[in-house]
Amino acid sequence: MAEELTYRDEAAAGYDGAFARVTTHFAPYLLRAAHIAPGMRVLDIAAGTGLAAEAALNIVGPTGHVIAADLSPAMVEKSRGRLGHAKNASVAVEDGQALSFPDESFDAVVCSLGLMFFPDPLRGLAEFRRVLRPGGRVAVSVNTVPGRSYNTRINLAIARHVPSLAPPAYFRLATK
């Protein structure tokens, strides 16, 4: 367990430098798919450093609320730094497959490039649905086939030189 937490701490430290551009590019599409609107209560699960949550916060405005949740305490701390100024935002350490929130708590649930890392993605989706209010929406973005991924060439080059660093989960939910 300690090695896993160390990895997460390291991932949190370099996440924005490595993934901010990609995440901020895809976030508007994700939030549109979830029909995020002013006044909504939104959960961003597997939020990383809170980039999509920050974008959602700008849409829900002062009458809405956004929770950025991630399994990694280090990622949650990065989210807290990003969202801490907003009175209508909060952060939480949460397992996306066993959310602590009551049923029907959110108008929308979003998950940006995280579901493919869940040990049991269907269990995660069931939890997203459980905490969603009637009429609410879940929106998820995942990597698809390697040829359509933003980082396939980078991952192939890394794997060629350091096979242990190849991320096998990236395309786990890909269409064949």
Descriptive tags:
176 residues, alpha/beta, five-stranded parallel sheet, 5 strands, globular
Helix content: 40-55%
| Global shape | globular
What is the string of SSEs from the N terminus onward?
HEHEHEEHEH
* Count of individual helical segments: 5
Structural class of the secondary elements? alpha/beta
Q: Would you identify the regions where 5 or more consecutive residues have pLDDT less than 50? A: 1-7
Question: Can you summarize the main beta sheet?
Answer: 5 strands, parallel
Radius of gyration of CA atoms, rounded to a whole number: 16 Å
* Percent of residues in β-strands: 15-25%
Number of DSSP strand runs:
5
Report the mean per-residue pLDDT as an integer.
82
Strand arrangement, major sheet: 3-2-1-4-5
